[in-house]
């Protein structure tokens, strides 16, 4: 469809409401923790009021990765585990848009594990929400990299035997510049974490415990007060979020662990560093046209 | 130079149309750089040139050659046999004396060889020259023999009466960037070589080439591909290093910032293709690239790009496979992978450049096709094209330059990301949607709005939509030009870097009285419609390819042609020695098929 001809007038900029942001009805199982994540994300976007057209939602594959279909924003539903590099391509080439990535623990820590390390160390400007349910949902109950030892799944019928990864430690080691942990049943806290993550200038990641009622119900009872668990918040008057060693220490015991911002520092983003290189390179060229630059290059090959 | 008889001692230089000079030494001797200087000189003096080199795949060095085919007419191949061999070591002599033609001339370094090492079988003229000691002497007592390549260059310049002033100019420009003493030493060695009395050996001089219509440049295939991508409007992309692709990404990394773009070194090829799809989804023309193993890693995402209809350029510089295979040799065995390498029916366009110059134009075409058909376009280059230097006319940028554009216009209320009656034109992030409904790019089968759909009918319709883009392109493609006879005993069909050797072979066969023609396919998927009728004009159709003849006796292109045209006359001449085709290999292969009933 040609867009060059007959370009319609841009709609008047209107307030970004939950209604405007809502797309298809989510296909998640009733009771799935991911519903709460979606609702809180609507709410945070309503609060931040970014231009509607400048919001992009990106995901890989998994139940949680269905997220972009339920958002009426520009979106891309990619392949399993590769959402972060895809989002990197968007973020680096489009400084004008806000990039949000959603996915599960398998997508992020298993098949996409290496990408997490590299997007984090490069400090790509984007926000990544990992909906951690300790199990593979979409493929119906296999062991996930965060499943605790002893968890009975279809691939470990007598109980998982592999040491689970510790998401907070993993993220701290990756070089991410904003790392927080929250819980889908704690909507106020989740909202605060999302907002701080989005406002952070750099690679921000939030691990959000989000129960899979279908294949691992009760996984997070120990951090759900109404089920007798404890939800212990990080006291930032005691924890210096820029102290990496303290953050590692706090991450040591993650069952059920603390919730809140583990770590936040300011380090130049790759986006900014690349732009700096572009600016420096271009300033040396004295404003000649791009075509002239290439012509000169050919002249040197004569 | 094969037309020249054994040297006589007459003083007037013998005039010749072309010559093949092979430098054989170790990779650290700088023979690549002197070969490169000669190639550049050819570019400047209206001569044709084609170079060929081998490099060891280990860093620490090892035997290496650089061969330069210089000529005044069209130079289409790297040369079956050398006319002149310059041997830096005894091992170089032993390994390469066989590639010197009967009666050819061999210069060898007396530092590493004595008269007893020489083989006088085939009337070869041996000339011992103290490359090493003469260089040390010229440069001034240093024990380093680093300048001996420059000594040899000076000597070759004198023997072939090359334009000394221009050659020194090229050398100075190259070394001038380094510190002064480097250039001074290089020129001292060069002058010593130029002045060295090689003794009773014939001097040659090239017939002047035709005056070029415009400026001529010399470059290798990876350089031209890179510059073609920039001219096509590419500003973003990502890749992971692998031989022989790396120099494209290295150059893009350094060049793109000048044009406001960014080239990212990714953590692996999976990430590289994903980042590139990200930039393409964001509305840019973007490129990723690799060589065989890396292309394999990109396959899942390339299937996604077909499904989600993302425009994208993918360069694959083929090398010898499978697996790590022969990383620094040439092969054309990724054709099937390029066309069919993903799971599911995932149509995409596959192109191949025919020579170094064409690397530029194929990149331009890939950009246009990716945008027009909103799908991945794979360019199959190869190791030979990547590194060999040729001279040709400078591209006219006023004609070819494509200004990059990011189309953020508001999309109309009836916008559909995947219309069934039109080619997809994505609305990138930043584009407002007049209807208030924002699009999603997806790898799930989907309806016209991008909603996931498991409907059998929709999958059938959408599969056809994606396939029909290629059907449409196939009808738009011109039939390839025929070189030689338009009807006759055999049609030779090639693709990629075999263009020159096939053309030369057909010329030779015709001069021997055969009625043969050749076509070269730049568009491999889809192929132009109408090839079947063209084939009917010949008794035999012979596909010449650098890949294995497989289980059933046909190379990859031949298999595709047989499958699509069901024409039993299609036969194969294949080889898998990791080297470019020699003329005689093609001639013998085609003649053998022509003698079949
Ligand atoms: C390359 C590839 N391998 C495997 C799969 C199958 N697969 C889809 S989602 C998934 C894991 C889902 O778990 P998680 O990422 O934790 O997300 P959840 O469904 O729990 O939200 C797997 C293995 C796939 N789609 N692609
Ligand atoms: S399977 Fe689990 S994760 Fe998936 S939608 Fe159902 S409850 Fe949620």
From TrEMBL, chain A:
GO biological process: cellular respiration; small molecule metabolic process
EC number, as in UniProt: 1.2.7.11, 1.2.7.3
CDD domains per the UniProt record, alphabetical: TPP_OGFOR
Enzyme class: oxidoreductase
Domain Thiamine pyrophosphate enzyme TPP-binding: 61-208
Organism domain of life: Bacteria
Signal peptide: none
GO function term, MF aspect, one: thiamine pyrophosphate binding
PANTHER family for this protein: 2-OXOGLUTARATE OXIDOREDUCTASE SUBUNIT KORB (PTHR48084:SF4), 2-OXOGLUTARATE OXIDOREDUCTASE SUBUNIT KORB-RELATED (PTHR48084)
Annotated protein name in UniProt: 2-oxoglutarate ferredoxin oxidoreductase subunit beta
Protein source organism: Prosthecobacter vanneervenii
From TrEMBL, chain B:
InterPro entries assigned: 2-oxoacid/accept_OxRdtase_asu, PFOR_II, Pyruvate:ferred/Flavod_OxRd, Pyrv/ketoisovalerate_OxRed_cat, Pyrv_Fd/Flavodoxin_OxRdtase_N, Pyrv_flavodox_OxRed_cen, THDP-binding, Transketo_C/PFOR_II
Family matches, as Pfam families: PFOR_II (PF17147), POR (PF01558), POR_N (PF01855)
EC number in record: 1.2.7.11, 1.2.7.3
Repeat keyword on record: no
GO biological process, one term: response to oxidative stress
Domain Pyruvate/ketoisovalerate oxidoreductase catalytic: 29-194
Keyword Oxidoreductase: yes
Signal peptide: none
UniProt keyword terms in alphabetical order: Oxidoreductase
Residue ranges of every copy of the Pyruvate flavodoxin/ferredoxin oxidoreductase pyrimidine binding domain listed in the record: 228-454
Domain Pyruvate:ferredoxin oxidoreductase core: 489-585
Main EC class the enzyme belongs to: oxidoreductase
Superkingdom of source: Bacteria
The name this protein goes by in its record: 2-oxoglutarate ferredoxin oxidoreductase subunit alpha
Species for this entry: Prosthecobacter vanneervenii
């Amino acid at each position: 469809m040609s867009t060059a001809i007959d370009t319609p007038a841009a709609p008047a900029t209107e307030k970004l409401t939950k209604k405007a942001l809502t797309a298809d009805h989510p296909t998640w199982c009733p009771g799935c923790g991911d519903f709460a994540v979606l609702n809180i994300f609507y709410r945070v976007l309503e609060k931040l009021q970014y231009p509607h057209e400048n919001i992009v939602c990106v995901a890989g594959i998994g139940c949680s990765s269905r997220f972009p279909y339920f958002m009426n924003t520009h979106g891309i539903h990619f392949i399993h585990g590769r959402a972060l590099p895809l989002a990197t391509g968007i973020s680096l080439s489009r400084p004008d848009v806000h990039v949000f990535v959603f996915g599960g623990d398998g997508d992020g820590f298993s098949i996409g594990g290496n990408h997490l390390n590299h997007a984090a160390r490069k400090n790509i400007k984007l926000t990544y929400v990992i909906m951690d349910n300790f199990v593979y949902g979409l493929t119906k109950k296999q062991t996930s990299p965060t499943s605790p030892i002893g968890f009975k799944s279809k691939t470990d019928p007598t109980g998982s035997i592999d040491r689970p990864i510790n998401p907070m430690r993993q993220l701290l080691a990756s070089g991410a510049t904003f790392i927080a942990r929250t819980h889908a049943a704690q909507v106020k806290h989740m909202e605060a974490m999302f907002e701080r993550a989005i406002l952070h200038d750099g690679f921000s990641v939030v691990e959000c415990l989000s129960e899979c009622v279908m294949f691992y119900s009760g996984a997070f009872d120990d951090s759900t007060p109404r089920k007798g668990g404890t939800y212990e918040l990080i006291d930032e008057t005691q924890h210096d979020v820029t102290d990496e060693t303290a953050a590692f220490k706090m991450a040591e015991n993650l069952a059920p662990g603390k919730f809140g911002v583990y770590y936040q520092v300011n380090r130049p983003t790759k986006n900014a560093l690349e732009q700096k290189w572009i600016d420096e390179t271009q300033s040396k060229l004295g404003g000649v046209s791009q075509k002239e630059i290439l012509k000169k290059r050919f002249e040197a090959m004569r | 130079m094969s037309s020249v008889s054994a040297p006589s001692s007459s003083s007037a230089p013998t005039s010749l149309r072309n010559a093949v000079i092979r430098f054989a030494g170790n990779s650290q001797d700088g023979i690549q750089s002197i070969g490169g200087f000669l190639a550049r000189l050819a570019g400047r003096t209206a001569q044709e040139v084609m170079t060929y080199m081998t490099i060891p795949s280990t860093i620490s060095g090892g035997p290496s050659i650089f061969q330069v085919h210089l000529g005044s007419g069209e130079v289409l191949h790297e040369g079956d046999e050398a006319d002149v061999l310059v041997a830096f070591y005894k091992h170089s002599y032993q390994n390469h004396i066989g590639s010197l033609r009967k009666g050819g001339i061999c210069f060898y370094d007396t530092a590493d060889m004595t008269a007893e090492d020489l083989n006088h079988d085939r009337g070869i003229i041996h000339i011992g020259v103290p490359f090493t000691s003469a260089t040390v002497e010229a440069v001034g007592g240093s024990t380093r023999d680093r300048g001996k390549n420059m000594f040899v260059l000076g000597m070759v310049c004198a023997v072939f009466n090359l334009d000394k002033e221009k050659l020194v100019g090229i050398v100075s420009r190259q070394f001038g960037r380094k510190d002064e003493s480097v250039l001074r030493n290089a020129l001292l060695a060069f002058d010593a070589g130029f002045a060295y009395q090689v003794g009773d050996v014939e001097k040659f001089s090239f017939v002047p080439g035709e005056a070029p219509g415009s400026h001529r440049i010399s470059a290798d295939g990876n350089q031209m591909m890179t510059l073609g991508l920039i001219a096509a409007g590419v500003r973003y992309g990502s890749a992971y290093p692998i031989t022989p692709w790396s120099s494209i990404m290295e150059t893009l990394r350094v060049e793109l910032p000048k044009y406001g773009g960014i080239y990212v070194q990714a953590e692996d090829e999976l990430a590289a293709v994903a980042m590139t799809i990200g930039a393409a989804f964001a509305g840019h023309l973007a490129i990723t690239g690799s060589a065989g193993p890396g292309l394999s890693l990109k396959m899942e995402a390339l299937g996604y790009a077909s499904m989600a209809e993302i425009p994208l350029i993918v360069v694959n510089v083929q090398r010898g496979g499978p697996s790590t295979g022969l990383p620094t040799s040439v092969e054309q065995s990724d054709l099937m992978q390029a066309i069919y390498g993903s799971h599911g029916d995932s149509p995409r366009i596959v192109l191949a450049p025919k020579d170094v110059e064409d690397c530029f134009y194929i990149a331009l075409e890939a950009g246009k096709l990716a945008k027009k058909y909103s799908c991945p376009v794979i360019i199959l280059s190869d190791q030979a094209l990547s590194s060999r230097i040729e001279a040709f006319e400078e591209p006219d940028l006023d004609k070819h330059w494509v200004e990059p554009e990011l189309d953020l216009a508001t999309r109309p209320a009836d916008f559909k990301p995947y219309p069934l009656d039109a080619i997809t034109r994505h609305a990138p992030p930043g584009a407002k949607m007049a209807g208030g409904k924002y699009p999603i790019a997806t790898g799930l089968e989907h309806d016209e709005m991008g909603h996931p759909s498991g409907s059998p009918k929709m999958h059938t319709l959408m599969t056809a939509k994606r396939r029909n883009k290629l059907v449409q392109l196939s009808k738009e493609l011109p039939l390839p030009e025929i070189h030689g006879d338009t009807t006759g005993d055999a049609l030779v069909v090639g693709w990629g870097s075999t263009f020159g050797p096939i053309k030369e072979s057909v010329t030779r066969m015709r001069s021997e009285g055969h009625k043969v023609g050749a076509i070269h396919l730049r568009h491999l998927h889809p192929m132009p419609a109408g090839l079947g009728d063209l084939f009917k004009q010949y008794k035999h159709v012979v596909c010449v390819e650098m890949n294995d003849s497989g289980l059933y006796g046909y190379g990859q292109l031949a298999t595709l042609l047989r499958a699509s045209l069901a024409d039993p006359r299609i036969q194969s001449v294949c080889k898998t020695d990791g080297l470019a085709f020699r003329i005689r290999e093609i001639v013998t292969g085609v003649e053998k098929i022509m003698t079949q009933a």
